[in-house]
Amino acid sequence: MDIFKSLIVWIIGLCFIVIMFPLTFIIWLMVLPFDRERVVIHWLLVYQGLTLSRLIPIWKIDIDGREKGVRETTYVIISNHQSILDILLVNCLRYKFKWISKIENIKVPVLGWYLKMADYITVNRGNEESKAEMLEKSYRCLKRGISIMIFPEGTRSLDKEPKLIPDDT
């Protein structure tokens, strides 16, 4: 039964992306000259996430505590992360934020394209310069009233031992 449920989620998700990505791309092109902060694309992705989460019939999502987030206050939101669906569900919070993502996600079709279109922050975790740049971009976002969202748990390994990321130095 779990495999069947997983198939339903993936089929609905993929169909949704096939339909919505071209629309998102067209809107991105239209607002690109005017939307320096990429606010339009962020909110478009948030509402696409909300729509997709409601389209999946085997889910009932309840969000508790969202009201504790004070409007016009910036946050550094830190969460653990189990699957790609966590990204979808965090978007259901409907906060104004920039994602921080590992640089490897840029290479993932669709996900990487969305990261670039929304001008989310990426970091090469093994590169000190990249880490410093990520911190600087995050600081600038916070100063402009844009919260930051990050899954900092690192990389998993098959043997459940922590996997160290090599330092480029």
- Low-confidence stretches at least 5 residues in length (pLDDT < 50)? none
Q: Encode the helix/strand succession as letters.
A: HHEHEHEHE
Number of domains: 1
The proportion of residues in beta strands is: 5-15%
Number of strands: 4
Radius of gyration: 17 Å
The main sheet orders its strands as 1-4-2-3
Structural class: alpha/beta
Task: Classify the helix fraction into a percent range.
Answer: 40-55%
Average predicted confidence as pLDDT: 86
- Distance separating the two termini: 48 Å
What shape does the CA trace take? globular
Largest sheet: 4 strands, parallel
> Assembly type of the shown chains?
single chain
Tell me the number of helical segments per DSSP (H or I, 4 or more residues long). 5
Q: Could you explain the architecture of this structure?
A:
This protein has 169 residues and is an alpha/beta fold. It has one domain (2-150). 46% of the residues lie in helices and 9% in strands. It is built from five helices and four strands; from the N terminus they run ααβαβαβαβ. The protein has helices at 2-31, 39-55, 85-91, 111-117, 128-143; strands spanning 76-78, 97-102, 121-123, 147-150. A four-stranded parallel β-sheet has the order 1-4-2-3, with helices on one face. α4 (111-117) links the parallel β2 and β3 (121-123). The longest helix has 30 residues, at 2-31. The radius of gyration is 17 Å and the shape is globular. The mean pLDDT is 86.
